[in-house]
Amino acid sequence: MFKIRKLIIIVSLIFLAGVLLLANSIRQHYIVPIIMYHYVHPNPDSKDRLTVSPVTFERQMRFLKEKRYNVIPLEELATLIKDKKKIPPKTIVITTDDGHKDNYDYIFPILRKYNLPATMFVIIDEIGRPQNDRLSWDEIKEMQDSGIISIGSHSLGPEPLINIKSEEEIKRQVFESKRILEEKSGKEVSAFSYPEGFFNAKIKKMVMDAGYKASVATSPGINFPDNDPFALKRLRISSNAGNLFIFYIEASGYYLPVREFQRRNRDR
User: Fold this and answer.
1) Higher confidence at residue 256 or residue 16?
2) Which residues contact 179 (CB under 8 A, 6 or more apart)?
3) Considering the entire predicted model, what is its pTM?
4) Which among 70, 88, 81 is positioned nearest to 213, based on CA atoms?
5) What is the pLDDT of residue 24?
6) How far, CA to CA in Å, does 220 sit from each of 25, 65, 94, 196, 233?
């Protein structure tokens, strides 16, 4: 009887040690979730996974508010990383790409309702275009003046910078987009989003030289550090996250590291 009890105690201690090691490993691989939205629009096409409905988006924002997530601007996260300060638990950043009209029509009113900050990246050459499917300068200024929206550069045009052969043209896309945004809005522009998430060391240095404080990719992969303000990893929110449990997992800070680990093992 004594031997059995001793064996149970030993097995329990081994199990507890395993749990503690696993928990410590998970904590070490935590990445502050920077969630990214492409489209928020009513009646999204069931085949378009990049679109979420305004109802879903509001449910997600209400979840972040009610569960007391520490929603901070992208620039603040970059500063915390740069200064090597402790990042509060449940910290999360909200971003959007491309400057679609839905940023103003649906996303902005919901963010303002719950007083949640976000960074919206806009393609300069598409602002106010005749199709009326992109933000106007007046809408951009109104959102910036609200105090909860930061506008970042998504370059002058949509072409991935790695596809552009001329270094001078890449530099123009990076530097000129910042200058135009600041001139039109009267606000400092401190964040850059690599078109389609692609970049290399040379492009990254140009972004730094232009005076940005942070830049984001999509998901550059496990080979990139988690604490580089100029290669910040983001998580695209798809229609699957209409399920709040899935959204909770994706917003936990552990989903992206697990996905990167799975990809690394798959590619071996």
Assistant:
1) 256
2) none
3) 0.86
4) 81
5) 42
6) 21, 29, 18, 11, 7
